[in-house]
Amino acid sequence: MPEGQRADARRNYARILTVAEREVAVHGAGASLEQIARTAGVGSATVRRHFPTRRALLEAVSRERVEALRVRAEELTGQGDSRTALLEWLDGVLSYSVAARGLAAALAYDGVPADPVHENSCSATMEEAGGPLLRRAVRDGAVAADVTVGDLITLIVGIVLATEHHPDPAARADRLLRMAVAGLSPPA
Question: What is the pLDDT of residues 145-171, one digit of tens each?
Answer without folding.
Answer: 999 999 999 999 999 999 988 999 999
